[in-house]
Amino acid sequence: MSVVCCNSWGWLLDSSSHIDKDFQRCVCYNEANGLEENTHFTCCFKRQYFNILMPHMQQSTAMSGFPLDSGKHDSAEHEKIELQTRKKRKRKHHDLNTGEIEANIYHDKVRSVVLEGSRALLEAGRQCGYFTEALTESQTISTPSESTSAHECQLAAFCDLAKQLPLSEESPVHTLSRDGQNPALDLFSSITENPFDCACEITFMRERYLLPPRCRFLLSDVTRMDPLVNSGDKFDLIVLDPPWENKSVKRSNRYSSLPSSQLKKLPVPALAAPGGLVVTWVTNRAKHRRFVREELYPHWAVEVLAEWLWVKVTRSGEFVFPLDSQHKKPYEVLVLGRCRSTSDHTDRCSAVNELPDQRLLVSVPSTLHSHKPSLAAVLKPYIRREPRCLELFARSLQSDWSCWGNEVLKFQHCSYFSRHTDQEPTSDTLQRTHSHLQSTGLLETPETAR
């Protein structure tokens, strides 16, 4: 279950467990034969990607050749390096630019909330046995990076090439069929839907991907969102994780960023249901947060209601970066707003809970870049029953959600999962397993939103 515990401060999340619940029962899907139901297997997202054992700054120091428990010579050298680093970063207040001054003001505003709220949630997590108290000798200080994966994602490049192809004039939704008697998968020009209550392994461009149960997705460039708009779906929850422009992205060249002015052109007003919730992940740059609040949301007729913080911790419950670090903060911001409702939809919106401000999401982050935790469980009380949910700029899929992006299948690649083959389950076994998962909260009912 994704929510380990919750209190008035927010929620403690287990992201890997949330991913795993979608892959308790998987089958292969063949375009010619459909579901190969004679073979079942279980998949788990590899735990190594959530194996952050110590704060990143300590980890970098240890991996650079200066162990944390080094001798006097190494310790002195380590202190010398840290002193030089502090001197470089320490600047007088009047040397800070406007953005840095704004960032410091915002940090001062939320610092006590992050500190006290995280402490309360972490203590609750320890009481239920979630956190490890100490590292063992067998645990290594190094953590895997995205570059260690056997899969190098080329989806964005394929999407760029696919822009030269004409859009399909057929139905905007392509549904996998049980018998497989349908055309070859065309993930670029139509929404692909897995309608089954089991995960499906598909082959696309000679690579294997896992599709969660009852998921929909569109793999396309930002200029080719027509199938999503033309589907006619209106979404009660839209989550965005934009590729914000920043110096780190330009240096690393990990993905293409999108100028803020281009975000205004996203068809959010056409996709959002009246009274729907819009949630945007924002970096800690003050100008991005200000842009969302003062330009983007007003342009989409979205009223800003709250800001939440995702606080990132290690497996032992430490912040991944020092809370007062000038370089990087151990948290990211979520700006939440609601589309302005018409009088016809007042009853629909009044049935949901009022959105609280300054709530925390505390979790061990993934070592994979821009792999955010799911918001499905924590946002459920603030949207109507049986909602339709959409993630824009997604890099992974969720059951009962629609997702769009030019790398929407990235973290669904089979190389990120460990696979366990099962015997053919009997109907009684399946029923008992299904009932057990529902009772423990690991399995949502099929009636939940797409």
Automatic annotation (TrEMBL):
GO terms for cellular component: cytosol. GO terms for molecular function: nucleic acid binding; RNA methyltransferase activity; site-specific DNA-methyltransferase (adenine-specific) activity. InterPro entries: DNA_methylase_N6_adenine_CS (IPR002052), MT-A70-like (IPR007757), SAM-dependent_MTases_sf (IPR029063). One of its GO terms (biological process) is methylation. Residues 425-450 are annotated as: Disordered. It comes from the Eukaryota. The keyword Methyltransferase applies. Keywords: Methyltransferase, Transferase. Gene3D superfamilies: Vaccinia Virus protein VP39. Residues 425-442 have a biased composition (Polar residues). Pfam families: MT-A70. Belongs to the MT-A70-like family. This is Methyltransferase 4, N6-adenosine.
